[in-house]
Structures are given as C-alpha cells and as structure tokens.
Design brief:
The protein is mostly helical. It has helices at 2-17, 25-47, 55-68, 90-93, 95-116, 123-144. The protein is built from six helices and no strands.
Length: 147
C-alpha cells in the first residue's frame, strides 16, 4: 500500500511539472511570467490590504517587476512556437500587435516604478499604477493567450 502511494505521488508530482524543458523558450517564458504574476499579486495585495504594506518591500518589488517586464518577449521568437504553450498562434502571426502590447506593459511598469521611488509612497497613486499594470497584462492575455 505504501509503495503504491509513493508511486502515485511521484506520478502526480511529475504530471504537475508539465514536462516543459526549463531551458526551452517556453520554460524561460513560464518562469518569467510566474515571477511577474507573483510580484504583481504582492504589490496589489499590499495596496488592497491582503499583505502588510511596507514601503521598502513595495519599492523593491516594483523595481523587480519593471526589470523583468522586458524579459519574456525575447523568448517568443519564431523557433519558440511550441504546442504546449498557452500562447495563441496570433503571437507569431500578429507579431507587431503583440510587441506593441509588450511595450505598453513595459511603460506601465516604468510608471509604477517611478511612483514607487517618490517618498513617502502614496498608496492611492500606487493603486492607480498597479491597476494599469494589471489591465495591461489582462489586455494582452485576452488577445494572445489560450485559456
């Protein structure tokens, strides 16, 4: 019985990995997007009261979000089109539009960072900025992600 449980847990753990090579373009994108999501959730959580607000932590997370917001796009080259991806074929077929939305996201994170560097931090202004970042993510997902 114990042996079956161990085998079952191993199979479940391996199936949760999705079999994505972490060194592939898809694997690299997934890592970056997951970090972006975690940072965005933490920033929004601080502003919405789910997480204790800490100015230094907020500013650091905003800096990191701005930094990595420029990284995933390089992993969407022509060879990166993979069947396991949640990206629609439109990413490659409408490359100009996709990159336009990527640049818009980068602009929103730059503005968030700029606001996060103005001491003392203004949670109301930051709330507006994080909402714009979230809407930029959502807009791109609606056009280019398979749900």
């Amino acid at each position: 019985m114990l042996k079956r449980m161990i085998v079952l847990l191993s199979v479940l753990a391996m199936s949760g990995c999705g079999g994505v090579d972490p060194d592939s373009p898809l694997g690299k994108r997934k890592v970056i997007f997951k970090e972006m999501l975690n940072l965005s959730e933490d920033l929004g959580g601080m502003l919405r009261g789910r997480i204790a607000f800490d100015e230094q932590t907020f500013a650091e997370k905003a800096r990191r979000l701005d930094e990595i917001s420029r990284q995933p796009w390089q992993h969407f080259d022509a060879e990166a089109k993979e069947s396991k991806s949640s990206a629609r074929d439109d990413v490659w077929e409408q490359r100009e539009r996709f990159m336009q939305l990527a640049r818009e996201l980068e602009g929103t994170t730059a503005l968030l960072l700029q606001s996060a560097q103005q001491q003392p931090l203004n949670p109301d202004a930051l709330g507006v900025r994080i909402d714009v970042v979230e809407k930029a993510c959502e807009g791109c997902h609606q056009e280019f992600r398979i749900y």
